[in-house]
């Protein structure tokens, strides 16, 4: 049996196979049928605008010989993309098999639907006579750039952002839950000034939310200006129309995008590069989190909840592996590699047009799909761990030398205040503590050996590694707006 002979076809990539249930929401916006549906939408909305104009326009944009469409005709046209399903997909594919041109196949598909209009609207409708209006004065990129912008905007707003925000919300909740839970910090992998587990989660929540703010403020640009961006055919064919105003109204008023007035044949894709770099940045922040969580689990700071019936190792029955975090780490890397390529290659086009962007943009769904998969796994991973307080307490109690920073900084402060006997604070503490493991008694003996005033000595002797967390708790509550 050849796998290629099996129907329905076997998925080649894990996004459409093994992980299809996690990435399926993006199909609604970034699959090939979704793109064709948006192309149809752009075409029919352009027909409607050319026929009926728009409110407040001083120059009647309706073309000579084209009467305004009725409300029923407008509804029929808008119903074409809405009804684009399995039959429409097959019909479009049949046309493309002949034309070898996806946008031309869209045009022929719409022509078919116009031929059927009298069945739905009656014999008086003139829609079948408006085939000439389909794709009027457009180059394929006029349709494609608007369709892609619409698709990507919806995918980000409806799928990717909610998933990323759910992760940010989870981090915020963990920050609040663990805000008072002391944690031995490691800088360069070595014991350092303690923090709280909540504060460390808040750091990631803050970093992620900043990038999500950038994504929410992202512009999505569009253009409709002809074969080389000059409205040349438009002006020659219909000089009476204010094409600049009409183009702007279509891009902004009908498509809900930001109008780009200056392009070659293609919309320059700068907004796409900006967006993909921001999503990649968010990916890398969360890649950092996935790695840190893996290390925390390895260190015993977080304990994993074993899933009943699951297997951690084919040979070692005791294992509960941090697979969610490993999966997230790998898929963030896959996503970033594609997003980086998209951001770099989409910025360039040879003179007024080449087709490198056409192939490249077909990978937008994969780029966001790997990110969505990673977000899903990371969130599931975070929801399946809890702090191991016994390990955290043991680490703190085994590293009293981390109080050296507090002691030598206090000695500096008292020296500046004029207290005698506070000279060479760093050197004195270094001699006692560097490279050694000491306990509470040695710390108290050192404090007693210095010329601290009683109040300062008492404050220092009251410190433990578990209480030496500064303003970590307050930082979790800090107003970050």
From TrEMBL:
GO biological process: IMP biosynthetic process
This protein's UniProt keywords: Lyase, Purine biosynthesis
One Gene Ontology term of the molecular function aspect: N6-(1,2-dicarboxyethyl)AMP AMP-lyase (fumarate-forming) activity
Protein name: Adenylosuccinate lyase
Pathway assignment: Purine metabolism; AMP biosynthesis via de novo pathway; AMP from IMP: step 2/2; Purine metabolism; IMP biosynthesis via de novo pathway; 5-amino-1-(5-phospho-D-ribosyl)imidazole-4-carboxamide from 5-amino-1-(5-phospho-D-ribosyl)imidazole-4-carboxylate: step 2/2
Position of the signal peptide: none
Function text: Catalyzes two reactions in de novo purine nucleotide biosynthesis. Catalyzes the breakdown of 5-aminoimidazole- (N-succinylocarboxamide) ribotide (SAICAR or 2-[5-amino-1-(5-phospho-beta-D-ribosyl)imidazole-4-carboxamido]succinate) to 5-aminoimidazole-4-carboxamide ribotide (AICAR or 5-amino-1-(5-phospho-beta-D-ribosyl)imidazole-4-carboxamide) and fumarate, and of adenylosuccinate (ADS or N(6)-(1,2-dicarboxyethyl)-AMP) to adenosine monophosphate (AMP) and fumarate.
Domain Fumarate lyase N-terminal, residue spans: 18-328
Cited InterPro entries: Fumarase/histidase_N (IPR024083), Fumarate_lyase_CS (IPR020557), Fumarate_lyase_fam (IPR000362), Fumarate_lyase_N (IPR022761), L-Aspartase-like (IPR008948), PurB_bact (IPR047136), PurB_C (IPR013539)
Adenylosuccinate lyase PurB C-terminal domain residues: 349-469
């Amino acid at each position: 049996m050849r796998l290629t002979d099996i129907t329905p076809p076997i998925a080649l990539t894990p996004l459409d196979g093994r992980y299809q249930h996690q990435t399926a929401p993006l199909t609604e916006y970034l699959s090939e049928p979704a793109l064709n549906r948006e192309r149809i939408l752009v075409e029919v909305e352009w027909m409607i605008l050319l026929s009926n104009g728009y409110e407040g326009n001083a120059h009647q944009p309706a073309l000579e010989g084209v009467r305004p469409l009725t409300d029923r005709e407008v509804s029929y046209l808008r119903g074409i993309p809405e009804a684009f399903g399995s039959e429409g997909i097959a019909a479009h594919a049949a046309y493309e098999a002949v034309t070898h041109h996806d946008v031309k196949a869209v045009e022929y598909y719409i022509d078919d639907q116009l031929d059927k209009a009298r069945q739905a609207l009656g014999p008086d409708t003139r829609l079948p006579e408006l085939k000439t209006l389909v794709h009027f004065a457009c180059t394929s990129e006029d349709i494609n750039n608007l369709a892609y912008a619409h698709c990507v905007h919806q995918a980000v707003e409806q799928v990717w952002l909610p998933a990323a925000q759910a992760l940010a919300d989870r981090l915020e909740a963990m920050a609040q839950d663990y805000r008072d839970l002391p944690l031995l910090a490691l800088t360069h992998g070595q014991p350092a000034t303690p923090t709280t587990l909540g504060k460390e989660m808040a750091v990631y929540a803050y970093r992620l939310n900043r990038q999500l703010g950038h994504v929410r403020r992202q512009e999505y640009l569009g253009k409709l200006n002809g074969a080389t961006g000059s409205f040349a055919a438009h002006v020659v064919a219909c000089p009476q129309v204010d094409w600049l105003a009409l183009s702007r109204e279509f891009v902004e008023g009908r498509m809900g995008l930001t109008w780009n007035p200056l392009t070659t044949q293609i919309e320059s894709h700068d907004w796409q590069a900006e967006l993909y770099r921001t999503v990649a940045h968010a990916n890398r922040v969360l890649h950092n989190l996935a790695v840190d969580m893996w290390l925390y689990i390895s260190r015993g700071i977080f304990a994993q909840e074993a899933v009943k019936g699951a297997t951690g190792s084919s040979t070692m029955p005791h294992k509960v592996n941090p697979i969610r975090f490993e999966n997230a780490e790998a898929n963030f890397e896959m996503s970033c590699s594609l997003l980086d390529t998209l951001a770099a290659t989409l910025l360039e086009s040879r003179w007024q047009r080449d087709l490198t962007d056409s192939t490249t943009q077909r990978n937008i769904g994969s780029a966001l799909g790997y990110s969505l998969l990673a977000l899903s796994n990371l969130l599931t991973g975070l929801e399946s761990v809890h702090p191991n307080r016994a390990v955290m307490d043991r680490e703190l109690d085994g590293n009293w030398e981390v109080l050296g920073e507090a002691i030598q900084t206090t000695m500096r402060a008292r020296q500046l205040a004029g207290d005698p006997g506070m000279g060479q604070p760093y050197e004195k503490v270094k001699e006692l503590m560097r490279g050694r493991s000491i306990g509470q008694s040695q710390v108290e003996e050192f404090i007693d050996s210095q010329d601290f005033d009683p109040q300062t000595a008492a404050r220092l002797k009251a410190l433990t590694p578990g209480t030496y967390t500064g303003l970590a708790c307050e930082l979790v509550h800090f107003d970050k707006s």
